[in-house]
């Protein structure tokens, strides 16, 4: 992390009042806030290709049209709003996603999209003249809450997910991804890699709420991303034998819940030993009866580490512990890696350029969270800005960023876009 002074604005000075960006940020934020928010939990349930997602997409399109931008969806259902000629090339692109995890917070994703429109408003307010095309994006299905795979929109575009593999994705009700896209009014036949589109992007910058407390601890409103940890999702299917919870003697049981529970504990131990993280946050049980020993426990492991070797070590150790325990419990175990994202080191030249534009005193942070920026970084120069999150909580309704910090984020993004696109 570079040196910095506490509580300064993104450019090293107190955040100035910016009627353009700050004002429009506020009204956009309030418009978007009720969409997909659950009345009981206060969390967001904006899953890909559902009604709440459609409402978010309508909102995006309205914002684009209200600003006189050229609106389009690409072959993978990602939304684009263009200022300037979309075909000219060397475009500066900014944006994030509008979908959420189950009962997610308001900021993860939407902060980047709303800040992008607000940054454009700010630049127009400043009278900026653009020398490169600018686009604002909403990438589809970033969280993977419905179909299990994260960053589907950007992965398809970057050719990291094939059409064939995408067609195999199913939600919890057995609805396939192509049928869900079709039902939402998109053409699933068209999906696939989009190298021509990527070739027209000169730089992609994603602003995102920080999902940790580094900026809170350093006293900065805004930071720049250095790298994303390698991470993946593994599905563990523990198969035993359904039987009566009252009449089956303990010694006669083949209870997959026991094996699953031991595996959760092993995951915690192995992650702690390696300085990594490992989480079982989703589980499906069959037959799921309170008075029945389960026949199947399906648990999804999410594991991440600072480097590939450590992640491999942790996941191998968890699998070994699970197999050993399965043997003991008479359980059949199958483990499938459902997704994997290698380490991402954001391009140094663009990162240095952002730092220079923002005054050279902005902290540089790594993160364990995945982003569309990480996927795109394999194909285009990519950078990220983080906005302070005082508690570090994310993927929860308690996720938060203060209004002044959001304003600092908008101004920082406006400065960056001005520095890149208005030369
Ligand atoms: C996305 O937010 C992820 O890191 O899982
Ligand atoms: Mn997220
Ligand atoms: Mn996100």
Automatic annotation (TrEMBL):
Pfam assignment, any one: Peptidase_M20
Molecular-function GO terms, alphabetical: hydrolase activity
Region span, Disordered: 1-22
Keywords: Hydrolase
Positions with biased composition (Low complexity): 9-22
InterPro entries tied to this protein: Amidase_Cbmase (IPR010158), Bact_exopeptidase_dim_dom (IPR036264), Peptidase_M20 (IPR002933)
CDD domains: M20_bAS
Entry superkingdom: Bacteria
Similarity section: Belongs to the peptidase M20 family.
Protein's recorded name: Zn-dependent hydrolase
Taxonomic lineage of the native organism: Bacteria, Bacillati, Actinomycetota, Actinomycetes, Kitasatosporales
